[in-house]
Amino acid sequence: MASTSNVTTLIFTGLFQDPAVQRVCLVVFLPVYLATVVGNGLIVLTVSMSKSLDSPMYFFLSYLSLVEISYSSTVAPKFITDLLAKIKTISLEGCLAQIFFFHFFGVAEILLLVVMAYDRYVAICKPLHYMNIISRQLCHFLVAGSWLGGFCHSVIQILVITQLPFCGPNVIDHYFCDLQPLFKLACTDTFMEGVIVFANSGLFSVFSFLILVSSYIVILVNLRNHSAEGRHKALSTCASHIIVVILFFGPAIFLYMRPSSTFTEDKLVAVFYTVITPMLNPIIYTLRNAEVKIAIRRLWSKKENSRRE
């Protein structure tokens, strides 16, 4: 921490100021977070226990669900408990930890989405070589690379923040710690730091999004050579991935590719990708995937039969 910093505690203004609105938010967002943990946890459990889902696609999906739980948990529990508090505080160290893990899991998710797009590309465009290319060893390597990429990204973010002096004020006009709101509290010019964050977060998100879009365009073009049944199955799987990509990247690019502001609209957009989107992912993947739904039913029936015995 910079030696000139004398701020040890930060105060959030929160999503809304009205206590009645905050109580409504508590009633809405607590079930959403619980659904996120249960829904994604069910996917992880189902994939790990179902032999029918022993393929690279579901291997990546289980890790994506694990990342979703972790990603949402960096923000949602603190946000929800703060809805009950009159003064919403966090230590400076806690704020840095939240930034680190929020960006760590966020970038790990981006890279996993890229990996899943590559997996679908090989499965659809090179089906005869799929098992040779997407080996179990490569799967573990790609997942490890996603975690490593997230770690390196977060280290850069934290190195940028820790060089800044914080002399006061200590009020963050947001409901969680992120880079741009924290920059406004630094008692020095943060133009260069803003440029680094723009490149490390904004441009990274845009380039990753373009790679994903390009991948799915190539996949859709190649589907013309498949049978009607093959096209339907591939489109169903790819549609789930594309919906998740749009839901995740849309709000992130909106916030990180434009000048920061403190409008309530920005906070609501942040709520969407920190709290809502992680809950939607398991719904999207299970509703559009017959194999996952069948595996969940089998898992549930086994549990019911064991109880009866």
TrEMBL record:
- For this protein, the parts annotated as crossing the membrane are 20-45, 57-76, 96-118, 138-161, 202-223, 235-256, 268-287
Keywords (alphabetical) are: Cell membrane, G-protein coupled receptor, Membrane, Olfaction, Receptor, Sensory transduction, Transducer, Transmembrane, Transmembrane helix
Q: Per its record, what are the GO molecular function terms?
A: G protein-coupled receptor activity; olfactory receptor activity
Record keyword Transmembrane helix present: yes
Location in the cell: Cell membrane; Membrane
Query: Domain named G-protein coupled receptors family 1 profile: which ranges?
Result: 39-285
Q: Which PROSITE patterns match?
A: G_PROTEIN_RECEP_F1_1 (PS00237), G_PROTEIN_RECEP_F1_2 (PS50262)
- Tell me, in one coarse class, where this protein mainly resides: membrane
Record membrane topology = Multi-pass membrane protein
Return the InterPro entries for the record. Answer: GPCR_Rhodpsn (IPR000276), GPCR_Rhodpsn_7TM (IPR017452), Olfact_rcpt (IPR000725), Olfactory_Receptors (IPR050427)
> SUPFAM superfamilies recorded for this chain?
Family A G protein-coupled receptor-like
Per the UniProt entry, the signal peptide is none
What do the Gene Ontology cellular component annotations say?
A: plasma membrane
According to its UniProt record, what is one Pfam family this protein matches? 7tm_4
* Annotated family: Belongs to the G-protein coupled receptor 1 family.
Name of the featured protein: Olfactory receptor
**Native source organism of the sequence:** Theropithecus gelada (Gelada baboon)
Top-level taxonomy:
Eukaryota, Metazoa, Chordata, Craniata, Vertebrata
